[in-house]
């Protein structure tokens, strides 16, 4: 069976390096399913889960956004923040989501609405990733 090499790199460290039979991620224009021999592609990566499948084994990671580069035999994911999904802190994600919602509803002129909206999107994506893992266990 054909495999592709996969690297998931955050701004601090390489989170994952290995082989896969399939990679699933959310690109800036929608869901991506990447198999060995995929057409070359470079696109933005939306905050959310990245699933790396190797036959029947699957690992899930959370990426805060970034870029995904696909070559026929290599997939590289570059993200500001990337972590193994099973290490995500649900309580912290809920707290971050609530804080971002509060900031967005605050009528104070000192609020950076774009930043608050981005924080809300990332917190919601973290919670979505946690829920997907629970559903698959």
From TrEMBL:
SUPFAM superfamilies: Epsilon subunit of F1F0-ATP synthase C-terminal domain, Epsilon subunit of F1F0-ATP synthase N-terminal domain. It is found in: Cell membrane. The keyword Transport applies. It holds the Pfam family ATP-synt_DE. Residues 87-131 form the ATP synthase epsilon subunit C-terminal domain. Its main location: membrane. Residues 4-82 form the ATP synthase F1 complex delta/epsilon subunit N-terminal domain. It is a peripheral membrane protein. Keywords: ATP synthesis, Cell membrane, CF(1), Hydrogen ion transport, Hydrolase, Ion transport, Membrane, Transport. One of its GO terms (cellular component) is plasma membrane. One of its GO terms (molecular function) is ATP binding. InterPro entries: ATP_F1_dsu/esu_C_sf, ATP_synth_F1_dsu/esu, ATP_synth_F1_dsu/esu_N, ATP_synth_F1_esu_C, ATPsynth_dsu/esu_N. Belongs to the ATPase epsilon chain family. HAMAP family: ATP_synth_epsil_bac. Produces ATP from ADP in the presence of a proton gradient across the membrane. F-type ATPases have 2 components, CF(1) - the catalytic core - and CF(0) - the membrane proton channel. CF(1) has five subunits: alpha(3), beta(3), gamma(1), delta(1), epsilon(1). CF(0) has three main subunits: a, b and c. This is ATP synthase epsilon chain. It comes from SAR86 cluster bacterium SAR86B.
